[in-house]
């Protein structure tokens, strides 16, 4: 269990540097880092997409 969380934490950092707040949202909400890497928005279900768009509005008011 610990090693899995350490792995997630480690993979979160480079992603965070590359993609910024959008990727933080994925990791914070526990979706896999792998799916965050592959075109995040298209991989989501409709429900998740709505949640994701709502979250992005906080980062990008425009």
From TrEMBL:
Region (Disordered): 28-62
Bias (Basic and acidic residues): 44-62
Protein name in the entry: Integrase
Organism: Bacillus caldolyticus
């Amino acid at each position: 269990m610990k090693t899995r969380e350490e792995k997630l934490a480690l993979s979160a950092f480079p992603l965070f540097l590359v993609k910024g707040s959008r990727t933080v949202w994925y990791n914070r909400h526990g979706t896999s880092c792998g799916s965050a890497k592959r075109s995040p928005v298209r991989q989501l279900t409709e429900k998740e997409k709505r949640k994701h768009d709502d979250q992005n509005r906080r980062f990008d008011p425009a």
